[in-house]
């Protein structure tokens, strides 16, 4: 008979957290300054224009993970832009509207994650899931150049 190992709770020291971007995750920090927000929006605009599909969410957001896994299941490997700060989602979306990559100027209830397809605002997780369930997501992804089949 095997002997059980005694349980011991390990106390971890608080270490400064480093975010290391992987191939599909892109992180940026912000201090909620106007200049930092403008840099973040400029970086997002550049990423949206460079990628056929991109997911933007808060760091560690489980719904961001769900959106990414759904798109990976369809054959798309979208980059994920994770925001490390407490930023107002509505403010970020309105800033993106002012930069011309989103046409939703009257957004009042949208939350992260937000998905851009083909350089344009597509919607949140609810829109991605609804479009997937109706069978319209794959043709949209093909038209955007994210799928080649």
What layout of secondary structure does this protein have?
Layout: E1 25-28, H1 34-50, E2 53-58, H2 62-73, E3 80-83, H3 89-98, E4 114-117, E5 120-124, H4 125-134, H5 137-144
Parallel strand pairs: 1-3, 2-3
Antiparallel strand pairs: 2-4, 4-5
Separation of termini?
Answer: 56 Å
Helix run count: 5
| The CATH topology | Glutaredoxin
By helix and strand content, what is the structural category? alpha/beta
Helix content: 25-40%
How many individual domains? 1
Strand order of the largest sheet: 1-3-2-4-5
Mean pLDDT: 75
**Could you give me the name of the CATH homologous superfamily?**
Glutaredoxin
Secondary-structure element order, N to C: EHEHEHEEHH
Instruction: Please compute the radius of gyration using only Cα atoms.
Output: 18 Å
- CATH architectural label: 3-Layer(aba) Sandwich
Using the coordinates above, name the CATH class.
Alpha Beta
Strand tally is 5
What's the short story on this structure?
With 149 residues, the protein is of the alpha/beta class.
Describe this structure in words.
Keywords: Cytoplasm, Redox-active center. One of its GO terms (cellular component) is cytoplasm. The protein is globular, with a radius of gyration of 18 Å. It has a 5-stranded mixed beta sheet with strand order 1-3-2-4-5, with helices on both faces. It has one domain (25-144): Glutaredoxin, CATH 3.40.30.10. 38% of the residues lie in helices and 15% in strands. A hairpin with a 2-residue loop joins strand 4 (114-117) and strand 5. The protein has 149 residues and is an alpha/beta fold. The N and C termini lie far apart (56 Å). The protein has 5 helices and 5 strands; from the N terminus they run E-H-E-H-E-H-E-E-H-H. The protein has helices spanning 34-50, 62-73, 89-98, 125-134, 137-144, and strands at 25-28, 53-58, 80-83, 114-117, 120-124.
């Amino acid at each position: 008979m095997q002997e059980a190992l005694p349980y011991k709770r390990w106390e971890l020291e608080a270490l400064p957290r480093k975010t290391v971007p992987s191939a599909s995750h892109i992180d940026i920090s912000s201090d909620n300054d106007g200049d930092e927000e403008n840099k973040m929006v400029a970086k997002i605009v550049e990423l949206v224009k460079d990628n056929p599909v991109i997911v933007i969410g808060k760091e560690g957001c489980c719904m961001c993970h769900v959106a990414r896994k759904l798109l990976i299941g369809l054959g798309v490997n979208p980059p994920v832009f994770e925001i490390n700060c407490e930023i107002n989602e509505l403010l970020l979306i309105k800033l993106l509207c002012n930069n011309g990559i989103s046409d939703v100027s009257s957004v009042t209830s949208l939350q992260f994650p937000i998905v851009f397809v083909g350089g344009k605002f597509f919607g949140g997780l609810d829109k991605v899931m609804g479009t997937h369930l109706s069978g319209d997501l794959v043709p949209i992804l093909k038209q955007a150049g994210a799928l080649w089949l």
